[in-house]
Design goal:
6 helices; 2 strands; 73% helix; membrane; transmembrane helix; transmembrane
C-alpha cells in the first residue's frame, strides 16, 4: 500500500506551497470532486431511475425496466465515487475512475471525454426531471436528497469560480 503525502510531488518535498495553492489543490482532490460532483450526479441518476420505475411500473413496463437500469447505474457510480473519496482520505491511490462511463473511456484512452458525456447526461436528467413534472411527484425524502445534491453541486461550482476569479484578479493586480 502506497500512501500519498499532499506535501510531496513524487519524492520532491513541497513544504513551501503557497496557502492559496493548497485551496486549489483541495478543489481538485477526489474527495472534493466526489462530494460536490460525483455523489450529486449519482443522486440525480438514482432519483431519475426511481421516478422512471414509478411512472412505468404498470402502464409502461419498458420505462420501468429502463428505470431499473438507471438506478443500477447510479448505484455502481455511487460505489465508484465512494471508493475514490475513501482512497483520497486514506492517501491510497485508487485504480477506478469516478463513474462507469469514464471507466469505459479509460479503456478507450479517452476518460475525460466519457466523463464529460456523463456530465451532459446528468444535466439532461435534471432537465428531464424538471420538464416531465416527475420532480413534483418525489417523496419528501427524495426531495431532500435532490435539494442536497443540487445545493452541493451548485455551491461548489460557485465557490470554485469565485476562488479562481479572485486568484486571477490578484495576479492581474500584482499580488501573490
Amino acid at each position: 500500500m502506497t500512501l500519498e503525502n499532499p506535501d510531496f510531488k513524487g519524492d520532491t518535498p513541497c513544504p513551501s506551497v503557497h496557502p492559496a495553492d493548497r485551496i486549489q489543490q483541495f478543489f481538485v482532490r477526489p474527495f472534493f470532486l466526489t462530494l460536490t460532483i460525483g455523489l450529486p450526479f449519482c443522486t440525480f441518476k438514482g432519483l431519475f431511475g426511481i421516478a422512471a420505475i414509478q411512472a412505468g411500473t404498470l402502464s409502461n413496463p419498458p420505462l420501468a425496466a429502463f428505470g431499473w437500469l438507471v438506478l443500477g447505474w447510479a448505484i455502481v457510480d455511487f460505489a465508484m465515487n465512494a471508493l475514490r473519496a475513501t482512497g483520497d482520505l486514506l492517501h491510497v491511490p485508487t485504480p477506478l475512475e469516478y463513474c462507469t462511463l469514464a471507466e469505459i473511456g479509460r479503456f478507450l484512452h479517452r476518460p475525460m471525454v466519457f466523463l464529460a458525456a456523463d456530465t451532459l447526461i446528468s444535466f439532461s436528467i435534471i432537465c428531464l426531471m424538471l420538464w416531465s413534472g416527475w420532480i413534483t411527484q418525489m417523496t419528501p425524502i427524495e426531495s431532500a436528497l435532490w435539494y442536497a445534491a443540487t445545493t452541493l453541486n451548485l455551491i461548489s461550482i460557485s465557490l470554485v469560480s469565485l476562488y479562481n476569479e479572485a486568484k486571477r484578479t490578484a495576479r492581474e493586480e500584482g499580488s501573490p
